Amino acid sequence: PRATGVRGFLERLDKGPVIGDGGFVFALEKRGYVEAGPWTPEAVIDNPEAVAQLHREFIRAGSDICQAFTFYASDDKLKNRGHSAGQHGVKRINEAACDLVGGLAKPAGCLVAGGLSQTPTYLTTKSKVVVKAEVKKQLQVFKEKEVDLMICEYYEHVEEAEWHIEAIKEYMPGTPIAASLCINENSDVHGVSTGECGVRLAKAGADVVGINCHFDPFRCLQAVKKMIKAVKEAGFDKTHFMIQPLAYMTPDASVQGFIDLPEFPFALEPRVCTRFEMHKYAREAYEAGIRFIGGCCGFEPYHIRALSEELIEERGGWAPVACISWGKCLEKHTKPWVRARASREYWEKLNPGTGRPYSASLSKCSEWGVSAGDDLVLQHEHETTKYELQKGHEFEAKLA
Question: What are 208's strand-pairing partners?
Fold first, then answer.
């Protein structure tokens, strides 16, 4: 926590909870600066002030760790399926991202994280040599900029995450590594149990292991708890744990999480967690022994502020800007019935309505069951062909 004055990432985790930031690709897509589909971070070059403003807002809300906006910035992803971001290249994007976040995070006492995520190359080749070569292109800038830690996030297959961790240890020895998978409470996409995934991340050399994205806070909590149990039983006593879930409720999501939901990605708003559900999530995560607590897709600054508010005492009394203090600010409202809502008891007990009387509470998932090694997920640099689209429609029709 910033309040401790401790510099090192792992030392901060030892002192108490450390708050991450939120989901940049979804937040910036809603603001018109990221293209849905590729979800790549060329906005750090094309619209740097938009990215900087989001960093500022997460810092104000209480983030201790500010991650450079380099999600999906591997060269193969930037060029995938005719995407134009390849013109910038991974080096320029990562340099711009690190410069942006460093200039904002460091004066505020926050740490800067570089970031890696899964690659199209893994889906297409499953070659360790080729995948690690893609990773090392990204690591060049992070090494030069001397980031405080590396976050490996958003892996559907533990095998690829292991290779990325190995690459960091080879190319950036001594850099703390936080590694998280986007899997559910049962297994990764290839059927490796969630607990075993945690053990494999720790064995590969990750200092912090956990879950991010694809599922809501409470399903992610179930998954991390399984990792905690397995990792501790395997004898990794110094390993810390992390969680950075969606801000969307996903009780009906299947193995690949919210991307299987029919509402993905443009109609997820009815599923957004309230800030008071975020209070509950932060408390449960802390009590489970998780010390790196943040958010992923759907997390806006007000969600991070809720995490920070819930853990003020545990963070040495440090409070974010503009705390709502469970609605105490409503005591100033002109309407007496709104003033009556100025209490923790009111907001903890609220069962919010959706305003949609004919809306279903759950959805039917697209359970295609295809992953690395299947022809349907082979990746390439040219645009998606009509034949590929047709094959996808035909496969979906068979499942209907």
Answer: 178, 240
The pTM assigned to this predicted structure is: 0.93
Nearest-angstrom CA–CA distance, 239 and 207: 5
Tokens 């969630």 -> residue? 194
What CA–CA distance (Å, rounded) separates 137 from 182? 23
Report the chain's C-alpha Rg in angstroms: 21
What pLDDT is recorded for position 14? 94
Alpha helix stretches (DSSP H) within the chain:
9-15, 24-30, 43-46, 48-61, 75-78, 89-105, 120-125, 128-145, 158-171, 194-204, 217-233, 275-287, 301-310, 336-339, 344-349, 386-399
Question: Residues with Cβ < 8 Å from 198, sequence gap 6 or more?
Answer: 209, 210, 226, 227, 228, 230, 231
Backbone angles phi, psi at 72, to 5 degrees: 60, 35
Written as six digits, the tokens of 347 are: 């907001």
Q: Please name the amino acid found at residue 384.
A: T
Spatial distance between the Cα atoms of 246 and 182, rounded to a whole number of angstroms: 10
pLDDT, one tens digit per residue, over 79-122 is 887 778 778 999 999 999 999 999 999 999 999 999 999 999 99
CA proximity to 281, closest of 252, 246, 313: 246
- Using CA atoms, how far apart are residues 374 and 10, in angstroms rounded to an integer? 39
CA separation for the pair 9, 114 (Å, rounded): 13
Q: Is 383 left (phi over 0), alpha (psi -120 to 50) or beta?
A: beta
Q: How many CB atoms lie within 10 A of CB 179?
A: 30
Helix (H, G, I), strand (E, B) or coil at 397: helix
CA-nearest of 119, 111, 117 to 146 is: 111
DSSP calls for 150-214? EEE---SSHHHHHHHHHHHHHHSTT--EEEEE---SSB-TT--BHHHHHHHHHHHT-SEEEEESS
